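$ ./design --mode recover --in tokens.txt
reading tokens...
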């Protein structure tokens, strides 16, 4: 089994509903995103899947979230734009974008700051 890792980032504002504390106020983060892909079969070039393809697909997703107020983004109108919910959103979108490829999106981690991150992965 092979595991590949690609990283991206986006800058966005958010505020947390149902939350007592400073994060209930609008504020921003540079969100770092890390996605892990797993698979067994290498192609003839010796690659599981091209890093450039993974990075461009991840960028297409992070670009949707870049320089916006996350609370205005349709997906986050019902669920709070926490690191947890953002990692689950990116996981699902990334997995959908790779469904034609013989790889599995294993996990997506979203770092809200250097000291705090949330990871989404599917429990077997
Ligand atoms: N489990 C989660 N907890 C919190 C989340 C989250 O997404 N998941 N988000 C927040 C806030 O967005 C907040 O911006 C981050 O809070 P906090 O780390 O307390 O604040 P700072 O980045 O300013 O860090 P300092 O250590 O206070 O400088 C809160 N919790
Ligand atoms: Zn925040």
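writing sequence...
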């Amino acid at each position: 089994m092979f595991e590949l890792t690609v990283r991206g980032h986006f800058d966005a504002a958010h505020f947390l509903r149902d939350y007592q504390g400073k994060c209930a106020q609008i504020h921003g983060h540079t969100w770092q995103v890390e996605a892990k892909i797993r698979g067994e079969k290498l192609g003839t070039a010796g690659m599981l899947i091209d890093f450039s393809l993974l990075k461009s697909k991840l960028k297409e997703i992070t670009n949707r979230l870049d320089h916006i107020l996350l609370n205005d983004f349709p997906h986050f109108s019902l669920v709070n734009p926490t690191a947890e919910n953002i990692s689950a959103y990116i996981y699902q979108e990334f997995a959908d974008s790779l469904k034609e490829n013989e790889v599995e999106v294993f996990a997506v981690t979203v770092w809200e700051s250097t000291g705090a991150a949330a990871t989404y992965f599917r429990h077997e």
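exit 0
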